[in-house]
Amino acid sequence: MTDVVDSDELLRRMHRARACAQQEARTWRARSGDMRATDPDGAREAAVRTLAYEAVVRVMDEILTPGRHREEA
Predict the structure, then answer these.
(1) At what angle do helices 7-35 and 40-64 cross, to 10 degrees?
(2) Calpha distance 43→36 (Å, rounded)
(3) Segment 12-55, tens digit of pLDDT
(4) Which long-range contacts (CB under 8 A, 24 or more apart) does 9-18 make?
(5) Which domain holds residue 25?
(6) Within a domain: residue 8?
(7) CA distances from 23 to 5, 26, 58 (A)
(8) How many domains does the chain have?
């Protein structure tokens, strides 16, 4: 990857990545709920994927808006 991008383009890409991760988290959360009764293993896997995408969203939030979402200890 040798493309040079300016800061505005980088920011747009990061916002798109955050939005994509947010959508994926919603999708996997819904799948987990739908599969809970019929496929417990699939529901568990979907729940793990949900957590992974939620983690990506939290990281992107911290990059895009530092300090806005402080974790409470």
Answers:
(1) 160
(2) 5
(3) 999 999 999 999 999 999 999 999 999 999 999 999 999 999 99
(4) 11/64, 14/60, 14/63, 14/64, 15/64, 17/56, 17/60, 18/56, 18/57, 18/60, 18/61, 18/64
(5) 18-64
(6) no
(7) 25, 5, 13
(8) 1
Amino acid at 41: D
> Does residue 72 lie within any of the structural domains?
no
Q: Is residue 45 a part of any domain in this protein?
A: yes
Amino acid at 29: R
The pTM (predicted TM-score) of the whole model is: 0.81
Determine the residue type at 48: V
